Amino acid sequence: MGIKVTPLTEKQINTTLIKDKDYVLSDGGGLQLRVRTSGSKQWNFNYRHPQTKKRINIGLGIYPSISLIDARLKACQVQDLLTKGIDPKEDRYQKLKHENELLKNANLPIKMPASLNEILTKLSQLEIDIANLDKYSETIKKEIVELRSQICQLQ
Predict the structure, then answer these.
(1) Cα 25 from chain centroid?
(2) 33 Cβ partners below 8 Å, 6+ apart?
(3) pLDDT tens digits, residue range 114-149?
């Protein structure tokens, strides 16, 4: 029988302290938050491999990009695979392999919108003129910032 674990809270996660060594906070049911010495926090799911019965961790994402609720949902999805006798890591690998094969076989040319091509051309011209930065630094900086924001809006 497993150890009874108190589920994590957002407050508890946000107030974690950086220590000299990495450490793990458990949410129960195999869901863990690994707190690194760098301060980053990574969600892991610890499980037994369906065939070998060895303990394995599978990464579920980085906190706060993956919230506590999202991590619990992902842990449930992993648990569902395990109940079907499917190794979640192998399943992830096969799905990525399949997606890569589809992309390779598609042979679709990647086309950028004309306006994006124009923006990138102008941006590269501005960056080439970096040698004259002393004379025109403020103007160039403003134009680069403006062009980059336009690129972000188009993507």
Answers:
(1) 20
(2) 8, 13, 16, 24, 25, 26, 27, 41, 42, 43, 44, 63, 71
(3) 666 677 777 666 665 555 555 566 676 677 777 777
Three-state SS at 74 = helix
Q: Taking a C-beta distance cutoff of 8 angstroms, is the pair 23, 6 a contact?
A: no
CA atoms within 13 A on the CB side of 77: 14
End-to-end CA distance of the chain: 51
Give the distance between the most distant pair of CA atoms in the chain.
73
What is the secondary structure of 114-152 as a DSSP string? Answer: HHHHHHHHHHHHHHHGGGGHHHHHHHHHHHHHHHHHHHH
Does this model's pTM top 0.70? My answer is no
**φ, ψ for residue 92, nearest 5 deg:** -60, -45
Per-residue pLDDT tens over the stretch 41-67: 999 999 999 899 999 999 999 998 999
